[in-house]
Amino acid sequence: MRRVPKQVGLLYVVLVGAFLAWYTRGHKVDYLVAVVSAFTALLALPAAVVAVLRSGKTGLAPTHLGDVADQLAQAVRQQWEAEARLRRLNDPFPLPVAWEAADADLVESWTQLKELAEDWPGQSPEADSAWAVSPGGLAGEGGKLAEVFEHVPTRRLVVLGEPGAGKTMLLIRLLLALLEHRPPGGPVPVLFPLASWDPARQDLYTWMADELAQDHPALRALIPANPPQAGTCTQARALLAHRLVLPILDGLDELPERLRARALHAINQVLPARQPLVLSSRTTEYRSALTTPEGATVLLNGAAGIRLLPLDPAKAAAYLERDAGGSATKAANRWTRVTAALATDTPVAQALSTPLGLFLARTIYNPRPDEHLSDLPDLSDPDELLDQTRFPTRQDIDTHLFTAFIPATYRPHPDRPTPWNAQHAQRTLAFLARHLEHSIHGTPNLAWWQLPRALPQQALAAGLTVGLMAGLPASLLAWLQAGLPSGLEGGGVIGFTCAVVAVVIAWSVRDRNPSSGIRWSWRGKSWLTVGLPFGLVFGLIAVVTVEPATGWGHGVVAGLLVGLLFAHMGGVRSVHPDLDKAVGPGTVLRRDRRTFWVITMAVGTLGAIADGMATAYGVAGPIGMSVWSREGFLFLLTAALDGFVLGLPLGFMLGLARSVWMRFLVARTALAAAGRVPWRFMSFLADAHEQRGVLRQAGAVYQFRHLDLQRHLAQHQP
Q1: H/E segment holding residue 695
Q2: Percentage of residues of the chain with pLDDT beyond 70
Q3: CA nearest to 658, candidates 524, 559, 551, 472
């Protein structure tokens, strides 16, 4: 039998003491019974309102893990099909990236891989027949990577390549191909950008579960653990434990150099031998990560490898000409001299030998699909790339392409005007790149809820804002009721108190993730340990201070009412939206903002109800005025307004603790006023992703199109 929390006993002691105090002072019991009955009826109101407003599942997940995996697969497919379309991976046609087997010293021997897989229990002869005969059988190009993956006996593959060689693009195509042939209830391929992992601080499973829950908040829902004696765990953790997630780990090279070897060691330690996986990295960085300080080589257990090759010059030329409108067009003819040089060893040939170089070049020098060359007299000529005096090395051309990329994406368009010109966009994107490099330690994940970290003293700014929002209504109400001096004094006291508390709250939740929504839950004890005592203290202080003429009976009753109502609000928890829908940054922001305002207004309303009910007792009891008279009704209405204004600051603080939106709003406003980000910050990010191709979306966060673009912008002042 579950033990009753000791706070419940304390609550009953307080209730009995209040009743005895009431009764011994000669009051009639009828009034108390009426108030308690009304309060009991109204106590369910907040939970009902929250239940109507919530959007998602609560409590234990009722579905089988296979059903959860199927829903996750649908959301992952929606997410990456949309991203492939926005990245124009198939426009004008998929780049035919080719690969060959990786160097033998970077991977396990083929004999070792076969012996390892053959030794697994339950290995079928049909699976053996699908294996490649040797590492040479892993060579291929284009969309055949999924087939190559199945040819590896252990289904573990390392994808290596030079910067911009198309590793991430290839992994997206692999993910979509694996989803296309995935059986119901089977493992779901999920792309994890490794740059957000700190192996020195986070266990691999914990980090992957956090990443899954961030992009798919429904996976935070609980499900019975296996074995049952272990209690419950989140759906994300359960999927990982049952190997229903196929990790595609992108960008080992994007981790700090000191952490790469540690990351490989953690992968070897944590993932079981039969867990398929894909890992990508730049070749030089991967080779360095394999070598320990003692000179030994530590390979990724059971992994084969491929190395991406430079693009074929003829295919790169065809791609540029096709993107310009076809070989017979005037725009395509501008590439004649450049494409002729692609088969040489010149800097321009080296720079345009990768998908990244081709993407930058076509964006800068080609008209967009709905533009005409005649309408773009200032469009740069690609022949400038042949100037070896200006661009003596490949690095010089790479720098030029990165520098010209942002102005090209934001050049004016007659049919789709944008409020952000190239200079404004360059300044904003450079600031965001520096924010990622310096404030968030080089991560590629541009999350809106981490923008406050770019603002010095963000907790102080959020606290002062909440104090101002809390003090102004109180000052206005006190001014109308008691004059200007009282208004300034009362509002100042409330505002200062709320500001101090809000600073502490903002500092304590500075690393909080956004809320998915709200629901009522009896799980946890904050509704007793925080909500009840805080509500009791608030109720007693507020009533005794504002209406001392009604006596201690009024104060005790009001304190109990307010305490219980705010304890009820202390049970508010996050909900988990539907799993089969992809969640983007804008959706996460809207849900978090809704959480803030629903909590704030609900607490204000509860304050109005509590003070109104306590005042009803005061009117009908000690004062002897009828609640239904005009004077009594106005008295009751004024008390409800007082309760709302006094409850609103508590709503602000609870909303600040349960969501991220207020801190983001303060940071965005301050940074926009300083000219560092646009006022319509989220619209700017969405435009940079959907219309410009400067950003890409990975679940609930944005990333720069390439990490080298992020670093270039961070190092070069606009």
Answers
A1: strand 695-698
A2: 69
A3: 524
Q: Give the C-alpha distances (Å, rounded to integers) separating 551 from 146, 481, 533, 610, 615.
A: 78, 21, 21, 17, 12
Cis status, amide bond into 293, omega within 30 of 0: no
Non-local (6+) Cβ contacts of 424 within 8 A are 678
More confident residue, 408 or 130: 408
Is residue 74 over pLDDT 90?
yes
Per-residue pLDDT, 300 = 92
* Residue closest to 246 by CA, chosen among 306, 289, 183, 202: 183
What's the distance, CA 74 to chain centroid? Answer: 19
Q: What is the pTM of this model?
A: 0.76
Task: Report residue 138 as tokens.
Answer: 């892993």
One-letter amino acid at 35 equals V
Residue 313: how many CA atoms within 13 Å on its side-chain side? 14
Please say whether the beta carbons of 338 and 382 come within 8 A.
yes
pLDDT at residue 30 greater than cutoff 60:
no
3-state secondary structure of 245: strand
Q: Cα–Cα distance between 252 and 255 in angstroms, integer?
A: 6
- Name which residue leads in pLDDT, 513 or 542: 513
CA dihedral 365, 370, 375, 376 (to 10 degrees): -20
159 three-class SS: strand
In this structure, what is the dihedral angle of CA atoms 33, 38, 44, 49, given to the nearest 10 degrees?
Answer: -160
Segment holding 352, helix H or strand E: none
Q: How many CB atoms lie within 10 A of CB 596?
A: 22
Q: Cis (ω within 30 of 0) for the bond into 92?
A: yes
CA distances from 62 to 222, 223, 240, 294 (A): 9, 8, 18, 51
- Do 446 and 695 meet the contact criterion of CB atoms below 8 Å apart? yes
CB atoms under 10 Å from CB of 375, counted, come to 10
Among the ranges given (113-127, 146-160, 245-259, 693-707), the one the predictor scored with the smallest mean pLDDT: 113-127
Strands (E), 273-400: 277-282, 304-308
Tell me the H-state helices in 325-421.
Answer: 330-333, 336-341, 347-351, 355-365, 394-409
Is residue 600 within 8 Å of 654, Cβ to Cβ? Answer: yes
pLDDT band at residue 555 using 50, 70 and 90 as cut-offs: low
Calpha distance 315→338 (Å, rounded):
13
pLDDT of 546 over the 90 cut: no
Q: Give alpha helix (H) positions in 518-584.
A: 526, 532-546, 551-569
pLDDT at 87: 79
For 710, what's the count of Cα atoms within 13 Å in the CB-facing half-sphere? 24
Q: Worst-scoring range by mean pLDDT, 101-115, 185-199, 342-356, 624-638?
A: 624-638
Mean per-residue pLDDT over the chain, rounded: 78
Handedness of CA 472, 478, 483, 485 (dihedral sign): negative
- 465 — pLDDT class (breaks 50, 70, 90): confident
- Residue 703, C-beta contacts closer than 8 angstroms, at least 6 positions apart: 193, 444, 445, 446, 695, 696, 697, 710
Angstrom distance (rounded) from CA 618 to CA 627: 10
For residue 434, the tally of other CB atoms under 10 A from its CB is: 17
